[in-house]
Design brief:
Strand content: 5-15%
Strand order of the largest sheet: 1-3-2
Number of domains: 2
Number of helices: 7
CATH superfamily of the largest domain: Winged helix-like DNA-binding domain superfamily/Winged helix DNA-binding domain
Shape: elongated
Helix content: 40-55%
Structural class: mainly alpha
Length: 199
Amino acid sequence: MRPPFAHEFGRRAFGPRGRGGFGDFPGWGPPGPGRRGGRPGHGPGGHGGRRGRRGDVRAAILTLLGEQPRHGYEIIGEIADRSGGFWRPSPGSVYPTLQLLADEGLVSSSEDGGKRLFELTEEGRAAAERLDGTPPWEHFTRDVDPGEIALRDSAFALMGAMRQVAGVGTDAQKTRAIEVIDEARRSLYGILGEPSTEE
């Protein structure tokens, strides 16, 4: 018999946000739903973000469900939001943890428009109150370089413009866009070749 959350895990694990980002660089996974300009505070790092420990995922779920009931994908997105995109746990870590919490009697679920809605039981609320008070996503943003965040935000903004040109641009506009991007790439490598002014 499949676990009660397996059908939702299957949908979410390989959905449109399952792949993307800028490769294996910390905090450079795809931005999740709800991000506003990539500011700190929905950004996946799912493929390329920093990896959380199992205890981090458990604590994050208990903390978020302590605020209100949520769907599984909302939990993933909210963690990404609050970590500024530097931690986006995968469905493969969130849904099994939800199942484990349900087995422990800490979480219950109900059908909500064809999706599973999760909420804490009384025992789950007690477990959430026993947490140390520091949300686990804060560990992922504490030592982040602000310059890295700004660079990441600019990169995502550029990707958005590229999608617009690819989707609605004319052939001539696409050709011009390629020239602009190629020139930008050369300029970036040129920056790396400049003498450093930092002491």
